[in-house]
Amino acid sequence: MELNPKVNENDRKSFRMQGGLGLGLNARTSERIAFLLIGLSAMLVAGFVVVILAYIIYNGYSAISVEFLTEMPRMRMTQGGIYPAIVGTVLLIIGSMAVALPLGIMAAVYLNEYAGDTRSTWLIEMAINNLAGTPSVVFGLFGLALFVKYFGFGSSILSASLTLSFLIIPVIIRSSQEALISVPKEYRDSSLALGISKWSTIRHVVLPAAIPGIVTGSILSIGRVAGETAPILLTGVAYFLPRLPDSIYSQFMALPYHLFVLATSGTSIVKTRPLQYGTALVLLMIVLGLNSIAVLIRRHYRKKLQI
């Protein structure tokens, strides 16, 4: 029996429409579920952050005072303030960023703009990835062997800052590379077409456009420098040092190590509990303050690029 071609074609169209509608409904349902899961995940992360911040603030605000922030420690740190630890932490951040930021940016520029897709470049990329995943205590041992012993810098701010700079260089390189990659190729082509040299193009066109991404990497690096304990433990930090460092070759106090000792092996852990939360709150405020400055810088350059 011969089939009616017209009827068969109508049946096929009807089947496709029904299948299409079914697929559409499934797609919308999947999209709603995905948005729900993403929203719940974001709320969960935000909730954890709020709980941690609230817990630290609730337990630490009572210890915050002018004396706590400006006085020297006394009685093996059971009394007095944490002023030397604040100064030491800020000096560590400044010293490590002063070394790591230019080196990381220059390495990223070389890898992204000059180095080709060669075996040497691949080896360098692998080395950076391995460094990014290396435990911080390994960097501490490296700094102890190289800066403290071999170069003779001793236990000092200089040794600790150089060690921390090597710790954060992989982070800066990676974030800077991503920022450089995000700059449209048309920027480079247009500049080169006008006869501008490659270095001038990178310096005046590419780098300014990549600054927001580079600053993002700097924000992450600041937080890591401020919170590391193992590297500075091996390269120069002291628990009780009631004076300010007088040179880059002096020992120093730092908030993360100070907090670690107070919470684990202090002379009176229970008695110094308010000092522990107060120190954690001050460290958090320093990191948030420096991060806020970096965010403002990033926002400024983003607005400038949009104009």
TrEMBL record:
<dbReference type="InterPro" id="IPR035906">
    <property type="entry name" value="MetI-like_sf"/>
</dbReference>
<keyword id="KW-0812">Transmembrane</keyword>
<feature type="transmembrane region" description="Helical">
    <location>
        <begin position="276"/>
        <end position="297"/>
    </location>
</feature>
<feature type="transmembrane region" description="Helical">
    <location>
        <begin position="82"/>
        <end position="111"/>
    </location>
</feature>
<dbReference type="Pfam" id="PF00528">
    <property type="entry name" value="BPD_transp_1"/>
</dbReference>
<dbReference type="InterPro" id="IPR000515">
    <property type="entry name" value="MetI-like"/>
</dbReference>
<protein>
    <recommendedName>
        <fullName>Phosphate transport system permease protein PstA</fullName>
    </recommendedName>
</protein>
<feature type="transmembrane region" description="Helical">
    <location>
        <begin position="123"/>
        <end position="147"/>
    </location>
</feature>
<dbReference type="GO" id="GO:0005315">
    <property type="term" value="F:phosphate transmembrane transporter activity"/>
</dbReference>
<keyword id="KW-0813">Transport</keyword>
<feature type="transmembrane region" description="Helical">
    <location>
        <begin position="33"/>
        <end position="58"/>
    </location>
</feature>
<keyword id="KW-0472">Membrane</keyword>
<keyword id="KW-1133">Transmembrane helix</keyword>
<dbReference type="GO" id="GO:0035435">
    <property type="term" value="P:phosphate ion transmembrane transport"/>
</dbReference>
<feature type="transmembrane region" description="Helical">
    <location>
        <begin position="153"/>
        <end position="173"/>
    </location>
</feature>
<feature type="transmembrane region" description="Helical">
    <location>
        <begin position="252"/>
        <end position="270"/>
    </location>
</feature>
<comment type="similarity">
    <text>Belongs to the binding-protein-dependent transport system permease family. CysTW subfamily.</text>
</comment>
<feature type="domain" description="ABC transmembrane type-1">
    <location>
        <begin position="86"/>
        <end position="294"/>
    </location>
</feature>
<dbReference type="InterPro" id="IPR005672">
    <property type="entry name" value="Phosphate_PstA"/>
</dbReference>
<keyword id="KW-1003">Cell membrane</keyword>
<dbReference type="GO" id="GO:0005886">
    <property type="term" value="C:plasma membrane"/>
</dbReference>
